[in-house]
UniProtKB/TrEMBL annotation:
Source lineage: Bacteria, Bacillati, Actinomycetota, Actinomycetes, Micrococcales
Keywords: Membrane, Signal, Transmembrane, Transmembrane helix
Annotated transmembrane regions: 511-534, 576-598, 604-625, 637-657
Signal peptide residues on this chain, from the entry's feature table: 1-26
A Pfam family: Beta-lactamase
Top-level taxon: Bacteria
Keyword presence, Membrane: yes
Name assigned to this protein: CubicO group peptidase, beta-lactamase class C family
Gene3D superfamilies, sorted: DD-peptidase/beta-lactamase superfamily
The keyword Transmembrane is assigned to this record: yes
Annotated stretches, region: Disordered: 29-48
Residues of the Beta-lactamase-related domain: 57-376
Organism expressing this protein natively: Georgenia satyanarayanai
């Protein structure tokens, strides 16, 4: 499923073309985020009571929905064991004018569903049926061919080491089979488990299958009976399609409020994001995790709930990354203002949600939006609401003072400057091209600060300052980055948002995109020049014929001779290879855009594009032959120079094809 910011379920990742390929982004260029205002030390908290929360929401949401072109929203706030408020805004069905009802209208919560999957897993841990640190293949019976064993601890902390997968993530087909989705083209394990935060829908789905395999119940039925029902969530379900008594109440999802609604989104791996629920039900789930169940039955013991919210990996596994936000068992560390906060966000193509608990304060906040909105407005609005809630009800101290000497801050800032790509990405297939196509760029500002564009886990740029050695805090914000460097001070990894990390884009990979763009431009000009040149030669031939008819003079020997025989074939082969390469790159542009927009691409088409690419790469040999032939035939510096430029273009394109794995035999995605 598509996600753009933080840790959503689905990924609204479309490709913005750069030459002949595209970048991992959200349906176009992401809008610039407004820099957060600095936290105000000593600010007084507003009363967390219904009248104040409702007034704040009424002042904030209706105007924001209209401005962002978002169809609807639903919000719930809990505190001290009670539902403070549960609200609906906008419309669940725009054409029908149906308002959002927080008690009846279901929203697709995306990856917030993973909290329910983690809860189900921890029920089995609590009963002794599974262990957090045992190879999950002992529970599932699945042979996934993994290089390193994976445990439930790895799966719930997003450190199993899997690369990303898109196939079947979200679509419109109904009743997906969880086991089949796991065993059909599983992702490669590209990192050692426990060492590298790299958010994984597949990993969470595998955890859900452990629940299914051990309990003997389909995952959806187990969660309904053991999580939703005890929590009092009578209007929520993981079922796809929804049961008849709920189907009529689900909000429609829209790109923007002015566009047609999207079909019901079917999540191919249900544990990762298939839940549909009302705001009131989500409030009951928050209360259950805060120790206030709807009935007499607790979904988990206090000790297990506390365990889920504690960091689940230590410095032995993560190294210095453990000094930043760390995953609990399903929960992200989203602490701010000196308060402990845990949460989880979620995105489908249309819906954008977030759930946060302030466990030490007995508070919870849930919100969901039913449209992406104009220029991705929902992503910004969601973050703004979370920040505004924290600022209003739990204001905290100002920025942390740095303990790092100025000269060290400057040295470390210089080391951080460069381009980075997410570990949550594609590493063994042709989609590895999406990494260097959309790097996060870090530059030094004011000598010792670092500006990231975009900010890690954000839409717009963000500045960070070093507060402890290799630990950075967002300027005017609450986010924290940690940097893993080698003994020489070279950056190896940047950790952020608990389950995310970035690694430097290597020099060769960085060069592959401009090399591809430059080579493609030259080859395109060559391909276009071929028919243009042929047309011009025909025009000249007609003129010569006309001249012969008028005065009887034959063309001169230079005109009649044409190209020297030794260069004719290499010239033709080079031009043909240029045309083939341009066609191949256009094919890759189509494939990448379709895949990243979650559209199925036939395997035969990908193979055909690969074969065309391979033929185009062979143009390097033809271009080399042509340079030698032009030199030997002494065709002049213009011809030799042109041939040399073409040789460089083919070399650059071939290098990029190799770096971006466009000819990889593995075409799964």
């Amino acid at each position: 499923m598509p996600t753009q910011t933080r840790h959503g379920t689905a990924q609204r990742i479309a490709l913005a073309l750069a030459g002949v390929a595209a970048t991992l982004a959200a349906c176009g260029t992401a809008p610039e985020a407004t820099p957060p205002s600095p936290e105000q030390p000593g600010a007084s908290a507003a009363p967390l009571e219904r009248s104040d929360v409702d007034a704040w929401l009424d002042q904030t949401l209706p105007a924001a929905l209209e401005e962002g072109n978002i169809a609807g929203a639903t919000v719930a706030v809990v505190h001290d064991g009670e539902i403070v408020t549960s609200r609906g805004f906008g419309e669940a069905d725009v054409d029908a004018g149906m308002p959002v009802d927080p008690d009846r209208t279901l929203f697709r919560v995306g990856s917030v569903s993973k909290l329910f999957t983690a809860t189900a897993v921890m029920q089995l841990v609590e009963s002794g049926e599974v262990d957090l640190d045992t190879d999950v293949e002992q529970y599932t019976g699945l042979d996934l061919g993994l290089q390193h064993p994976v445990t439930l601890r790895h799966l719930l902390t997003h450190t199993p080491g899997f690369e990303e997968r898109i196939t079947g993530l979200i679509g419109t087909d109904t009743t997906p089979d969880l086991r089949d989705s796991l065993v059909t083209d599983p992702p490669e394990q590209v990192f050692e488990p426990g060492t590298t935060p790299a958010y994984s829908n597949y990993g969470n789905a595998l955890a859900g299958y452990v629940v299914e395999a051990v309990s003997g119940m389909p995952f959806e039925e187990y969660v309904a009976a053991h999580v939703l029902e005890p929590a009092g969530m009578t209007s929520s379900s993981f079922a796809q399609p929804l049961p008849d008594h709920l189907a009529a109440d689900v909000a429609l999802g829209y790109p923007t409020a002015e566009e047609d609604p999207l079909p019901f989104e079917v999540v191919g791996q249900p544990p990762a994001g298939a839940l549909s629920g009302t705001a009131t039900d989500m409030a009951r789930f928050m209360l259950a995790h805060l120790g206030h169940p709807a009935g007499d039955q607790e979904i988990l013991s206090p000790a297990t709930r506390a365990l889920m919210m504690e960091p689940a990996l230590d410095a032995d596994a993560l190294g210095i990354l453990a000094q930043g936000p760390r995953m609990g068992l399903g929960w992200f560390d989203e602490s701010r203002h000196g308060h402990r906060v845990v949460g989880h966000g979620g995105d489908t193509t249309a819906f954008h949600s977030h759930l946060q608990l302030w466990p030490d304060d007995g508070t919870g906040l849930y919100l969901s939006l039913s449209s992406t909105g104009t220029d991705g407005a929902a992503y910004l609005l969601r973050d703004e609401l979370l920040d505004a809630f924290a600022d209003r009800y739990y204001p905290g101290p100002g920025a942390t003072e740095s303990t790092v000497p100025a000269d060290v801050r400057e040295e470390h800032a210089q080391a951080l400057a460069g381009a980075y790509e997410s570990t949550r990405g594609f590493h063994s297939t042709f989609l590895t091209a999406t990494g260097p196509l959309q790097p996060t760029r870090a530059v030094v500002v004011d000598g010792d600060r670092v500006r990231f564009t975009p900010g890690p886990g954000q839409l717009g740029a963000a500045e960070y300052t070093e507060i402890e050695p290799w630990v950075y805090q967002q300027v005017g914000g609450h986010r924290v980055l940690t940097v893993r460097a080698d003994d020489a001070g070279q950056v190896e990894m940047i950790g952020h948002d608990s389950a995310m990390s970035m690694v430097p884009v290597g020099a060769a990979r960085s060069a592959s995109i401009p090399a591809l763009a430059g080579g493609a431009a030259v080859l395109l000009l060559t391909a276009l020049a071929w028919p243009v040149g042929a047309a011009m030669r025909r025009v000249r031939a007609r003129r010569r014929t006309a001249a012969v008819g008028n005065d009887g003079a034959a063309p001169g020997p230079r005109e009649a001779a044409g190209a020297p025989a030794p260069v004719r074939l290499p010239r033709r082969l080079t031009r043909l290879a240029a045309v083939v390469t341009v066609v191949a790159l256009a094919g890759w542009a189509y494939v990448l855009i379709a895949v990243m927009n979650l559209q199925p691409v036939p395997e035969l088409l990908v193979r055909a594009v690969q074969v065309t690419t391979a033929v185009g790469v062979l143009g390097l040999l033809a271009a080399g032959w042509r340079v030698v032939a032009e030199v030997r035939a002494r065709t002049g510096w213009v011809r030799i120079g042109t041939a040399s430029v073409l040789l460089l273009a083919f070399a650059a394109t071939s290098m990029a094809v190799n770096q971006l794995l466009l000819l990889s035999p593995d075409i799964t995605y």
